[in-house]
Amino acid sequence: MNQGTDLQAIIDAAYFGVYDPAVGPLAKASWAYNPAIEGMYPFDVEAAKKTLDDAGWALNGDFREKDGQKLHIEYVTTDFDKHSELWQSQMRDIGIEANIQMVDNGTWIDSGSKGGQNITIIGWISSDPVILEHLFHSRNAGTGFNWSFLKNDELDALLDQGQGEVDAAKRKEIYGQAQQIIMDQAAVLPVYDQIGYNGLGKTVKDVRTDARGWYRWFYDTWFAS
What we know:
By secondary structure, the chain is α/β, with parallel strands linked by helices. The protein has a single domain (about 25-195), classed as Dipeptide-binding Protein, domain 3 (Roll), CATH 3.10.105. It is about 35% helix and about 15% strand. It has helices at about 5-20, 45-55, 85-95, 105-115, 130-135, 155-165, 170-185; strands at about 60, 65, 70, 70-75, 95-100, 120, 205, 210, 215, 220-225. It has a three-stranded antiparallel sheet, with no helix packed on it. Helix 6 runs antiparallel to helix 7 (about 170-185). The two termini are about 30 Å apart.
């Protein structure tokens, strides 16, 4: 069998059908996930068109304009982005012109940190909701990975509180409120929950993973005869 073909098939399956659509800044596998945010932004092409119409962005040919300005988005991304052209096509369907800038990783990170784009791809791997601080705290806007440049005092206070709280139930409530604010502000467009899949032989026992399946612990692992 061709190993390269098999690997590509696995990658394609992961991106196109295996991963669940995301609805918020934390994956559903997270212990701090807030289900109350589900349904806030359903996929609805006609509703999107009406929102743009109501805001004064009228179609002029294929794309929308307002006060002589074309509705244009610069999408800066890098080579591990598997869905940029699909997203570009979806934007075109509602009259938004999206230009894809495919750049190297260094340029992508520099652009994201400085706000050199209208939209970009970003995702972090973490088993703890503290990751929201990296991506949405105002102190990380312009200097870190708050590439949405969201600055919200209430959110900052919650993220600071979440870092210092040791009670798991209280932390879940804190980060639940934080997720609600992030989605209320539309600071992120969730695409998919990236969950890791692990294959183990039948004789391998007691391998532990985190909620996403990314990290594995072999301290108690043993092999059955």
